[in-house]
Write a structure and sequence with these properties.
This protein is of the alpha+beta class. It has helices at about 15, 95-110, 135-140, 140-150, 210-225; strands at about 20, 25-35, 35-45, 115, 125-130, 155-165, 170-175, 185-190, 190-200, 205-210, 240, 255. It has a five-stranded antiparallel β-sheet, with helices on both faces. One of its GO terms (molecular function) is metal ion binding. Belongs to the polypeptide deformylase family.
Length: about 260
């Protein structure tokens, strides 16, 4: 999705995140450390497709199922299936944490996508970034933009986010993910949420969101619990991007607000 949900970034956090171990075929194993703890993850090196992430549809030439977004770890890597750790307040301003944030923004924008969680670059910390631009939105069909209540918003960095639903309204739409390249599935999400946490300077931040921004926030916060959108998808709606416009199976709920 959110797809909720960018190619390989570069230098700023390279020393922090790219201490390569023995290479694997078609991938690199990265080992990194924050606060003395090390983690390992597999990061692919193949090229990514335009708007391959969280834009929810094929608009703008989204990739086929075989496209891969470099800079992100993929489904099956343990870091994506386990809860992430909170960032200590005293560590927020550290070079390591700020480097992680810079790398996340770089990877997200290069994919490009509209959201990213730290576990998606192999870092098990509770940090999310998200941004939706008028340019990104312009690639989606007008009817989808209206149905999804999608509006541009500036870059948000949220550390240790805490999410709560602020209404009982929900909607069903297709989502994708940079860690599950080339696929989509229908997911039911709340339409109104509030997320509180810290910004990248360690100051309190609270975001009240609705529509597509609320969906992105829920998708990214799920990553911090070790949950992928496929863990929540409506059964029988999973498909490759090229089949996104095909009818839903009989018995599946219709897309849109409920």
């Amino acid at each position: 999705m959110v797809a909720l949900l960018r190619p390989v970034p570069a230098a700023a956090a390279a020393a922090l995140l790219l201490a390569p171990a023995a290479p694997l075929a078609g991938s690199a194993v990265a080992a990194s450390a924050v606060s003395g703890r090390r983690w390992r993850s597999v990061r692919t090196n193949a090229g990514g497709g335009w708007l391959s992430g969280l834009l929810g549809g094929k608009g703008g030439g989204a990739p086929t199922a075989m496209a891969v977004t470099p800079g992100t770890v993929k489904a099956g890597d343990p870091v994506l299936h386990e809860p992430a750790r909170e960032v200590a307040l005293g560590d927020v301003a550290s070079e390591k944490v700020q480097g992680v944030i810079d790398r996340m923004i770089d990877v997200m924008r290069k994919a490009p996508g509209v959201g990213l969680a730290a576990p998606q670059i192999g870092v098990p910390l509770r940090i999310i970034v998200l941004e939706d631009t008028q340019e990104y939105i312009s690639y989606a069909p007008k009817k989808d933009i209206e149905a999804q209540d999608r509006r541009p918003f500036d870059l948000l960095v949220i550390i240790n986010p805490k999410l709560k639903n602020t209404s009982k309204r929900t909607a069903l739409f297709f989502e994708g993910c940079l860690s599950v390249d080339g696929y989509r599935a229908v997911v039911e999400r709340h339409l109104d949420v509030e997320v509180s946490g810290l910004d990248r300077n360690g100051s309190p931040i609270k975001v009240q969101a609705s529509g597509w921004q609320a969906r992105i926030l829920q998708h990214e916060c799920d990553h911090l619990e070790g949950t992928l959108y496929v863990d929540k998808m409506v059964p029988r709606t999973f498909r490759i991007v090229d089949n996104l416009d095909l009818p839903l199976p009989i018995g599946c709920p219709p897309l849109g607000a409920r």
